[in-house]
TrEMBL record:
Keyword Phosphoprotein attributed: yes
SUPFAM superfamilies: CheY-like
Job of this protein: May play the central regulatory role in sporulation. It may be an element of the effector pathway responsible for the activation of sporulation genes in response to nutritional stress. Spo0A may act in concert with spo0H (a sigma factor) to control the expression of some genes that are critical to the sporulation process.
Any matching Pfam family: Response_reg
Phylogenetic placement of the source organism: Bacteria, Bacillati, Bacillota, Clostridia, Eubacteriales
A Gene Ontology BP annotation from the UniProt entry: phosphorelay signal transduction system
Record protein name field: Stage 0 sporulation protein A homolog
Tree of life domain: Bacteria
Residues recorded as bearing 4-aspartylphosphate in the entry: D79
Domain Response regulatory: 30-145
SMART domains reported in the protein's UniProt record: REC (SM00448)
Length: 171
């Protein structure tokens, strides 16, 4: 029987960190914040702007649709319970419009629990429960943006489970 040579060596290196630990660059990224409560819009916008995002607010579904169709938006945070066009109606309209269908939408609502299957089927990218945990919201938005390296497309099938258990709060 013929035996070969065996070599061993050591390469000094730092352990690789998890991708979630590396902040995703947000410079130039625009988030459309949609909630019928102007105070919530302001609070979310301030948190986003502190992190370096450009934030735009809308206090109705109709206003949100107009902004999403007329400006470049990288991600949308969307309340479900609003007068007029509610969040689910807005989400459906966004996903059926070729100009907006690829914009990731993160639902920010006290009423998201139990609606996950409907929301995922409609194309939601993540859910953050109210009352809002700022860290969960920012982590979810960064995950949405970082997972696709800035490309605007639908999330893969594994994304919902990973985000729901790791990033989003439960109601």
């Amino acid at each position: 029987m013929v035996e070969g040579s065996t070599f061993s060596f050591t390469i000094p290196a730092e352990p690789a960190g998890h991708a979630a630990e590396t902040p995703i660059p947000v410079s130039g990224r625009t988030v459309l914040v949609v909630d019928d409560d102007p105070d919530i819009v302001r609070i979310i916008m301030l948190a986003l702007e502190r992190e370096g995002f450009h934030a735009v607010g809308a206090t109705s579904g109709e206003q949100a649709l107009e902004i999403a169709r007329s400006r470049h938006v990288d991600v949308i945070t969307l309340d479900l319970m609003m007068p007029g066009a509610d969040g689910v109606q807005v989400l459906r309209q966004l996903k059926h419009d070729p100009a907006t269908r690829d914009i990731p939408v993160v639902v920010v609502s006290a009423y998201g629990a139990g609606k996950e299957p409907e929301l995922v089927a409609t194309g939601v990218s993540g859910i953050v429960a109210k009352p809002i945990d700022e860290n969960d919201l920012l982590a979810t938005i960064r995950t949405v943006l970082g997972t696709w390296r800035g490309e605007r497309r639908s999330p893969p099938s594994w994304w919902w489970t990973t985000t729901r258990t790791c990033g989003a709060s439960s109601a």
